Amino acid sequence: MAPSAVVDLLPTSSISASTKSQDVNAMAAMAHRGKALPSIPKFASHAETRQWQLEHMAGAFRVFASEGYAEGISGHISVRDPEYEDRFWINPLGVHFGMLKASDMICVDLDGEVTGGNIDGSINAAGFQIHSAVHRARPDVHAICHTHSVYGRAWSAFSKPLEMLNQDVCYFYNAHSVYSDYGGIANEASEGQKIAASLGTGKAAILLNHGLLTVGQTVDEAAFLFCLMERSCKVQLAVEAAGLEKHLVPDEEAAYNFKMASTPETLYCEFQPHLSYEEYKCQGNYKA
């Protein structure tokens, strides 16, 4: 059975907000006088939710293009379908991040069968193995980001986790892992399965000799975490190069920072300025 039709425009009247209390508290605490930013929207139908997801997915690719994460045909973002949990949407092979639109995405099931969307497009084989394995292992995950970004690849060569060098990297405190068993291009299911196992229940993984992978309940969360992890790798490399004594964020403060800043709602909000700027630059043409 094919997914419900994708709508062209989303009526704002169908949007309602539903937020867990702990997320509300964390979001409100970040605003002066406790006025929280708008939370993750909810929609009246699967079709509206799907279109919203695909638009934000395409927007995330535009952000990644602006950040310089494109590298040939490598790199992918996937989003689980809101109606069929055994299916996800992924970008077509060979299209630059900066050109992707919502209508370009391909829907595929966990067995590799294309079920909708841009059926004329091709899917990165290694990307399918990685994303299908993570989606299968982590039903709580709705979005996955992976690219061959420069600083992520550089830091991955050390096969070490990030240190809590500053406030921002605490978003990954005790929530990221290192996959240190690099097995080449992930064209086989076993490599994807090992990456998924290494990720565990975390938000991100550093893949030895490969790059970074982040996950989230929304594509916005996963994309923001990817950008943050890439910048954190850049900071870590700069600190290592300086060769001076490090003063790490203490565990208690790191845990507090993580609690306050790493909820799905907060991370969704963190990505909105980046997404809005891309929409402003291209007048929202990625939504088509």
TrEMBL record:
<protein>
    <submittedName>
        <fullName>Class II aldolase/adducin</fullName>
    </submittedName>
</protein>
<dbReference type="InterPro" id="IPR051017">
    <property type="entry name" value="Aldolase-II_Adducin_sf"/>
</dbReference>
<dbReference type="Pfam" id="PF00596">
    <property type="entry name" value="Aldolase_II"/>
</dbReference>
<dbReference type="GO" id="GO:0051015">
    <property type="term" value="F:actin filament binding"/>
</dbReference>
<feature type="domain" description="Class II aldolase/adducin N-terminal">
    <location>
        <begin position="55"/>
        <end position="237"/>
    </location>
</feature>
<dbReference type="InterPro" id="IPR001303">
    <property type="entry name" value="Aldolase_II/adducin_N"/>
</dbReference>
<dbReference type="InterPro" id="IPR036409">
    <property type="entry name" value="Aldolase_II/adducin_N_sf"/>
</dbReference>
<dbReference type="GO" id="GO:0005856">
    <property type="term" value="C:cytoskeleton"/>
</dbReference>
